[in-house]
Fold:
Amino acid sequence: MIETRNDAAADWQRATCYLNGEWTSLLDAKVSVLDRGFIFGDGVYEVISVDTVAGRGGSLRAPFRANEHFARLQRSLDAVRIDNPLRLEQWLDLTAEVIERHPWPRQLVYVQVTRGAAKRDHPFPAGTVPTVFVSTSPWPTIPTEQIEHGVAAVTHVDERWLHCDIKSTSLLGNVLMKQYAIDHGASETVMLRDGYLTEGSSTNISVIKGGVISTPPKTVQLLPGITVDGIAQIAAQRGVKVDVRPVAASELKTADEIWLSSSGREVLAIVSLDGAPVGAAANTGKPGPMYRKMYEWFQQAKQEDARAWHAQRRGSAIKPDVSEQADEQRTQAV
Ligand code: PLP
Structure:
């Protein structure tokens, strides 16, 4: 076992995870080398953000849109023909428990299901039990610098397969595109297919022009993001027009604002694309006015969602924690 260091950065190493029905130390958890997730990337996953927000009777720690994440997990499982090993209530209980077992006010819960372990051969093996893995890690606060000043992105041809709608663990194409961004001093790669925007390496992309938010439709070319859906819903509630339509690559050059969104990064403004400033950022060097509004609205939406989660969990076997004090006690206990 790797020795853990007694500082916040090493905190994740002390995590507990759920693997095939048992809770075990993250660093001790093992799966077979024959697991098809390892051999073929034959599995699907979810990442769910957890934040602690102000509630009426104290602070509330809650996952954001957990039901939607498990609905997407079901769609991914169906698409790759793996029987869902758990019912929705069991997934929600597991999510509540993995959060509860860790002291961090902000977490990223990771859920993975693979087709299981079998002799290496391409066809689906008969009678294999899926591997179920649930873990969590501390979710660092999104740097104020990125919220206030935005991030840089670069473009690249989308070279991935045509099932990007499945949240598959086969992520090599995405990994290469993320590294492309890093290698070019940027924080995301915006991918283009046949002259149209698809998505980022690990984010969805929205383009804002004349007060309208445009985002590509849900096709096999991109992941139907929970966060971008949230943005569209929030915008619609506030009377901002959302256009779900194919977005031409050329529109990136004339956009007032470009946003990226994901569970881990929430919503961030892209202020520079391929080295050129985006829209309003040409003068200010900062995210535009629509971004500032959306950022605030998104934080409010998280509060509403946290209240809904706690209302939904009330009466379930695993009680959600409702006070900062409880968080503090857990922090001290670790
Ligand atoms: N697109 C890709 C390729 C992703 O990997 C992700 C998230 O990891 C997203 C979009 C955003 O999805 P979500 O908002 O559900 O996190």
